[in-house]
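sry for the spam today, last one i promise. C-alpha cells for design, 709 residues
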C-alpha cells in the first residue's frame, strides 16, 4: 500500500503520471480492467452484506421489526450522505487515488468488525450491538467516501479525444455494479441460511465473505497503481459553490439598504466571483429546486431491503411452484411492461418520464398493500393491553361446553379431538384477571380457576385424569411466526410412558399422562418416519408436510395397534405464495428505470460541465433524505403494515402531482450556450458596447430556450 502511495506522489509531481498501455491495440487503457474488477468486488461486498442485514437485526440482535427497519434505513442514509465528504477529500486534499485507498481500508476494517460482531462467542449481546454499529458506521464512510471517486477516476484514464471509448467504459462499469449486486444478493442469503455455524444461521460467514471481497477489491485496485493516470487535487467545485453562495447571502444582508436591487440574489456575489460561475450556479439551482420532491421516490424504492424482505418471510416460499408460475403467468406481464417502458422512454420528455416513474413506484406499493392484506390473514397478531387470546383443545371422550363468566367466547359445544377453531379474544379488567371457567361434560359441571395475563396467548387443554374428573391445563403459547418460514411443533403425550421424539435434528420430550413438549421450530418439509421412543418400545409416525409458518400440535395416543397421533394446525400456514411479490418488484424496477436513469440524464443535460459533480451530490442527497423519511415513519407512525404501504403510495402520488406542476413550468436550457455567451468575455468583466455603455450581466432569460416539461 505504501509503495503504491509513494508512486502516487511521484506521479502527481509529474502532472498526470504515466500513460497507461492500451488493451490489444484499442484505445482502452489496461488500467480500467483493475477499476472494473474493483467495482465488481466492492458492490458484491456492499450489497451482499446489506442483503441479510434486516434479518440479522431481527434474529441475531433480537430487535423488533420497526427498530430493524429504522436502523437499516439510517445506515442507507449515511451511505449517501458520506459521498459529499469523499468528494471534498479527493478534490481538495488527497486526490482520487489515495482517497479510494484510504477509505477502502476503513471499509475493510468496518467489514471485519461487523463479521466479528456476528460471532456468538465474542462477548455478550451488548458487545454484538456495539461491534455491529461500529462496523456499519465504518462501512458507510468507506462505501460512501469512495462512491464519487472510483467512476470519475476510471474516466480520468482516457485521453480527451477518446469520448466514445469513455462512454462504453461507463456502460461496462455499471454492468459490473449490477453483476456484483445480483450475485451477492443470491449468494449471501444462501450462506446465511444453508450453512450452519455456532449452532444457528451463519451470519459470521454471510458477513465474512463480503469482507473478503472488499479485501480483494482493495488489492486489485492497488495492483494497478503503476498503470493509472493520477491527477493532483484541483480544488472542489462544491466548496467553491458554497463559498460563492455564502458570500452572496452575506453581501446582500450587509448592503441591501445601501445598494440598488439586483435581478437575482446570487448577483450579490459579483464583487468577488466571476459572472460565469454565478450563472452556472443559477442553472444548478433551477435543477436542485426540482429535486425537492424526489426523496419520496427513494423512500419507497429502498424499502425493498427492509419492509418487503420482512413481508417475504411471512409468505409461502415454495420456489418450485414459483418457477412454474413465473414460466407461465408472468412472462406476458414482463414483456408488456418492458415494452411500455421502452415506449415511454422514446415518446416522453425527461420530466414526464420521471413523473411516470413515481406513479409506477406508487403502484408497486399498492400491489404490496394487496399482498400484505392477504398475508396477515394467516398471522395471529399479539393481543393489546387488557386482552388475552385463548383457544381450547377438547381431549375428552365426548363434546364439552366451556363458559367464561360474563362472556360468550365459546358459545358452541366443542367436539372431542376437534381442531381448535382459532384464537378468541378474552377481555381483562387489568393486567391480570382470574376467571372461574365452567366446563360441562356428559351433563356434569366442573369449575377451573385460571389466571390470564394481558398481551398473552394461551391454549386451554381439557382432559380426564380419572373417570368422572376433568382437568384444565392452561399453557402460554408462542404465536409469532418464524421469519425464516420455519414451522413450529409441539407434542401432547396421552400415553402412560414418557416419550422422546426426534423430528429432523430437533429433539422433543413429552412426559407421560398429558405432558406437553416445548414448542420448537423445524424447517419446512416432509417428515416421514419420525422416531418416538418410550422406555419399552420404539415407534415410527409420518407427520407429513410441516408447512411454511404453520403452528402444529400433535396428540400422541397409545392404541392396541401401536402409537397413533392426530396433527392439529393451531395457526394457519403461510398460504400466499411469494410469486405474488413479483408484480410489485416489476413496478418498482420499471419505476426506477423511468425515474433514476432519466433523472441523471436530465440533470446532466441541464448543468454546465463544471457543475455536474454538484448535481451528482444533490442527487445522492435525495436518496439519503428518502431513507430518513422511512426512518421517521417506521419509528413514529405506529401503523399496521398494509396501512403504512398505502400511506407511502398516497404520499408519492401527491408528490408526483406537485413535481408535475413544477416540471410544467420548467423551461429547458442549453448549457453549451454559456460558452458562446462568454467566449469573448473570458476575464468575466463587463465589455464596453459601441455607445459607451456596459452590457448587463447575462441571465438565464437571455439563453436559448427549449420546450417545457
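last one done:
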Amino acid at each position: 500500500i505504501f509503495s503504491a502511495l509513494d508512486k502516487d506522489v511521484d506521479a502527481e509531481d509529474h502532472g498526470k503520471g504515466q500513460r497507461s498501455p492500451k488493451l490489444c491495440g484499442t484505445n482502452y487503457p489496461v488500467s480500467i480492467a483493475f477499476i472494473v474488477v474493483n467495482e465488481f468486488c466492492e458492490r458484491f461486498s456492499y450489497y451482499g452484506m446489506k442483503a441479510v442485514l434486516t434479518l440479522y437485526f431481527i434474529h441475531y440482535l433480537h430487535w423488533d421489526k420497526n427498530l430493524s427497519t429504522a436502523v437499516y434505513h439510517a445506515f442507507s442514509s449515511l451511505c449517501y450522505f458520506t459521498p459529499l465528504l469523499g468528494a471534498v477529500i479527493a478534490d481538495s486534499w488527497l486526490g482520487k487515488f489515495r482517497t479510494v485507498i484510504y477509505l477502502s481500508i476503513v471499509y475493510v476494517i468496518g467489514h471485519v468488525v461487523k463479521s466479528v460482531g456476528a460471532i456468538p462467542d465474542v462477548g455478550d449481546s451488548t458487545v454484538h450491538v456495539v461491534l455491529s454499529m461500529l462496523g456499519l458506521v465504518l462501512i458507510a464512510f468507506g462505501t460512501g467516501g469512495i462512491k464519487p471517486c472510483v467512476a470519475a477516476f476510471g474516466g480520468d484514464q482516457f485521453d480527451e479525444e477518446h469520448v466514445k471509448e469513455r462512454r462504453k467504459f461507463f456502460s461496462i462499469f455499471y454492468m459490473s455494479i449490477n453483476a456484483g449486486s445480483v450475485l451477492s444478493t443470491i449468494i449471501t442469503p444462501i450462506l446465511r441460511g444453508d450453512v450452519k455455524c455456532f449452532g444457528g444461521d451463519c451470519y459470521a460467514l454471510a458477513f465474512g465473505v463480503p469482507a473478503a471481497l472488499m479485501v480483494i477489491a482493495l488489492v486489485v485496485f492497488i495492483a494497478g497503481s503503476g498503470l493509472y493516470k493520477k491527477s493532483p487535487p484541483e480544488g472542489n467545485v462544491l466548496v467553491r459553490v458554497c463559498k460563492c453562495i455564502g458570500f452572496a447571502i452575506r453581501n446582500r444582508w450587509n448592503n441591501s439598504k445601501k445598494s440598488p436591487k439586483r435581478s437575482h440574489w446570487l448577483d450579490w456575489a459579483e464583487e468577488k466571483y466571476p459572472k460565469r460561475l454565478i450563472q452556472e450556479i443559477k442553472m444548478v439551482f433551477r435543477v436542485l429546486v426540482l429535486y425537492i420532491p424526489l426523496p419520496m421516490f427513494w423512500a419507497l424504492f429502498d424499502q425493498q431491503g427492509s419492509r418487503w424482505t420482512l413481508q417475504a418471510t411471512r409468505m409461502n416460499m415454495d420456489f418450485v411452484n414459483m418457477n412454474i408460475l413465473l414460466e407461465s403467468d408472468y412472462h406476458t406481464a414482463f414483456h408488456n411492461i418492458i415494452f411500455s417502458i421502452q415506449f415511454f422512454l422514446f415518446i416522453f420528455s425527461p420530466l414526464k418520464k420521471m413523473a411516470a416513474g413515481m406513479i409506477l413506484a406508487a403502484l408497486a406499493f399498492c400491489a404490496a398493500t394487496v399482498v400484505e392484506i392477504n398475508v396477515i390473514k394467516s398471522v395471529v397478531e399479539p393481543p393489546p393491553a387488557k386482552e388475552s387470546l385463548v383457544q381450547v383443545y377438547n381431549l375428552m371422550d365426548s363434546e364439552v361446553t366451556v363458559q367464561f363468566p360474563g362472556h360468550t367466547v365459546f358459545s358452541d359445544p366443542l367436539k372431542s379431538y376437534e381442531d381448535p377453531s382459532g384464537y378468541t379474544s378474552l377481555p381483562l379488567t387489568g393486567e391480570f384477571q382470574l376467571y372461574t371457567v365452567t366446563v360441562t361434560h356428559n351433563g356434569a359441571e366442573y369449575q377451573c380457576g385460571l389466571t390470564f395475563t394481558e398481551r398473552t396467548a394461551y391454549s386451554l387443554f381439557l382432559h380426564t385424569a380419572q373417570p368422572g374428573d376433568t382437568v384444565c391445563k392452561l399453557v402460554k403459547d408462542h404465536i409469532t411466526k418464524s421469519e425464516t418460514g420455519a414451522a413450529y411443533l409441539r407434542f401432547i403425550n396421552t400415553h402412560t410412558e414418557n416419550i422422546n421424539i426426534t423430528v429432523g435434528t430437533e429433539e422433543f420430550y413429552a412426559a407421560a399422562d398429558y405432558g406437553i413438549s416445548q414448542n420448537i421450530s423445524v424447517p419446512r418439509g416432509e417428515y416421514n418416519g419420525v422416531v418416538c421412543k418410550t422406555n419399552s418400545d420404539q415407534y415410527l409416525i409420518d407427520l407429513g408436510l410441516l408447512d411454511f409458518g404453520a403452528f402444529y400440535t400433535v396428540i400422541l395416543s397409545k392404541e392396541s395397534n401401536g402409537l397413533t397421533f392426530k396433527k392439529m394446525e393451531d395457526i394457519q400456514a403461510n398460504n400466499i405464495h411469494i410469486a405474488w411479490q413479483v408484480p410489485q418488484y416489476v413496478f418498482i424496477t420499471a419505476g426506477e428505470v423511468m425515474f433514476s436513469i432519466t433523472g441523471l440524464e436530465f440533470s446532466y443535460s441541464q448543468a454546465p460541465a463544471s457543475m455536474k459533480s454538484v448535481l451528482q451530490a444533490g442527487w445522492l442527497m435525495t436518496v439519503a433524505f428518502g431513507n430518513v423519511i422511512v426512518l421517521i415513519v417506521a419509528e413514529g407512525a405506529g401503523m399496521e403494515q398494509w396501512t403504512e404501504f398505502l400511506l407511502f403510495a398516497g404520499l408519492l402520488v401527491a408528490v408526483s402531482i406537485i413535481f408535475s406542476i413544477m416540471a410544467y413550468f420548467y423551461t429547458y436550457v442549453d448549457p453549451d450556450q454559456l460558452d458562446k455567451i462568454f467566449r469573448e468575455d473570458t476575464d468575466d468583466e463587463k465589455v464596453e458596447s459601441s455607445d459607451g455603455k456596459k452590457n448587463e450581466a447575462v441571465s438565464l432569460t437571455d439563453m436559448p430556450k427549449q420546450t417545457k416539461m
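DSSP finds 19 helices and 22 strands in the chain. ok im logging off now
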